[in-house]
Sequence to fold (408 residues):
Amino acid sequence: LGTDNYTRIYEDGSVIFLEGESGDRAYVVEEGVVEIWCHRDNERVLLQELKPGAIFGEMSVIDGSPRSANASANGKTKLIEVTSHQLRSRLSNSDPIIQLLVKVLLERFRNERRVHRGDNLLSSTEVKANHLANLQQTGEDAIHKIRLEKELEVALQKEEFFLLYQPIVDLRDQRISGFEALIRWDNPLRGMINPAEFIELAEETRLIVPIGEWVVEQACADIAMLNSRFAAQENLFVNINFSGRQLMDKHFLKHLRKESERHSINPDLVNIEITEGIFLSGENLSDWLDESRTDGYKIVLDDFGTGYSSLSYLSKYPIDKVKVDKSFVQAMEKDASARAIIQAVIGIARAMNMTVVAEGVETSAQMKLCHDLGCEYGQGFLFGKPVTVDIVSEELSTSFPQNELALS
Ligand code: C2E
Ligand code: CA
Ligand code: CA
Fold:
């Protein structure tokens, strides 16, 4: 008798599941008592008595093995059903090391129970093979992750990271106004690795803090060098990406201050790129955002339009620039709604005194549309791919030879 479609009431003594059955759901006891039991020498042996709040039946769902015991209601009992989909999607979204831990612990638990009972529940060879393959895959994923984590640590010590710079141009005359610093990892065995493959892991392991500090140090040194070399371009700015974990580190602003002072960079030329995701962290961001602003650093909201895009962030936090995500820029030629979104963002930004940067500009048609709609800045392969600081310097000396200081 179900009270709704996820809770179920069992009368006293009724069976919830039987040993050997395959399990497609787990249960949480909401009211009453559940008994977990097995047969030993034709006798009913009580293994566990579960009270409200306990979860049971999850083992079969996690590792696909048959139910290893019987479950029945002791008195009238109300259970919440947790479907295999609910359970598996959570597990598969979790860290591979946690998945491995869960599965290995389950395996150990089952083995102990088997030894204790003197039997072997994994009788079918097919079930056994599937089970082992599943465990092996989880193990391989976890090993891959642990290895990558170690390699990231070594990469930091051995200075295998480097920065590329992508120009950000003024759309009125397409002159370079500044650069976005983009990290790369030159791994001796695997070659060049893009940030998409390691930034997330660096965040999970908190290695993002020292990596991010290295990015700040390098980006400040490079932009100071470029600005001193190209005198009349003294106002070249640099955009640095910061992820949520970095910003939660209380020292981040102190470190940024120290590095920009060391290289005598006007904070006005350093743009802190953040994404909307950090506003969901629940952390109090207003303090450091206000402090950065007071120092003169600019805040750029990156990938705008993707994710949660709540306009309330724009009024709540002191944001100076918005970067319209490349997906809109790339769709705008054919898709009127993408165009409408960019137009709306520009309208809001204008009203709130923010600057708009169009990201991922690849064609002159996109550039023209962005400019016509009122974007001030553009970034994308049309203007230049990310390149090393040496190439940037070379290119600037061809574009602005008259600005280059004679190096004595
Ligand atoms: P992002 O901040 O959105 O950076 C822009 C990405 O778009 C870069 O990818 C860039 O190479 C790419 N891109 C630029 N112009 C175009 C274009 O015209 N067309 C297309 N299709 N793509 C374009 P990249 O360098 O692989 O960086 C990926 C992401 O990694 C960045 O996205 C950023 O979120 C993160 N990231 C990069 N460097 C750092 C860093 O130093 N620290 C942190 N925390 N994250 C970083
Ligand atoms: Ca960015
Ligand atoms: Ca972006």
